[in-house]
Amino acid sequence: MPYVDGFIVAVQKDKIEAYKALARTAGEVWKDHGALAYVECIGDDVPYGKLTSFPRAVQASEDETVIFSWIVYESRQERDRIVAKVMADPRLKHNPAEMPFDGKRMIYGGFETFLQL
């Protein structure tokens, strides 16, 4: 079964185009190094919940939107190999201060697939 990395970030609405440009480059890099799929989604129906929600999870403000993304790999072993190559790829070397989102509020993790229909 595939292995999946998932991410949630808050992006300022006036930086969406910069984020999309970064995502296009990142997607190319991940795919070039062997990822099976790279998906980026922008929040469309993500209300601020009373207790929990996507916006609460990343402490999104009124001028931010939530981005939900995931990367699919053949296996955990392939993921570890691919991520090492991606992190060394010069196409993704950016000054953290110039990133279109606050990396400290990013939520991410790796997941084993147990069901795929």
Largest sheet descriptor: 4 strands, antiparallel
- Shape-level CATH architecture: 2-Layer Sandwich
Give, in spatial order, the strands making up the sheet with the most strands.
2-3-1-4
In terms of quaternary structure, what is this?
single chain
Question: Which stretches are low in confidence, meaning pLDDT under 50 for 5 or more residues running?
Answer: none
Q: What is the terminal-to-terminal distance?
A: 11 Å
User: How many discrete domains?
Assistant: 1
- Portion in helices: 25-40%
What is the total tally of β strands?
A: 4
CATH topology: Alpha-Beta Plaits
SS field, number of helical segments: 3
What percent of residues are in strands?
25-35%
Structural class: alpha+beta
State the shape: globular
Query: Mean of the pLDDT scores?
Result: 95
**Rg (C-alpha, Å):** 15 Å
Pattern of helices and strands: EHEHEHE
CATH top-level class: Alpha Beta
Keywords:
single chain; 117 residues; alpha+beta; Alpha-Beta Plaits; four-stranded antiparallel β-sheet; 3 helices; 4 strands; globular; DUF1428; Dimeric_a/b-barrel
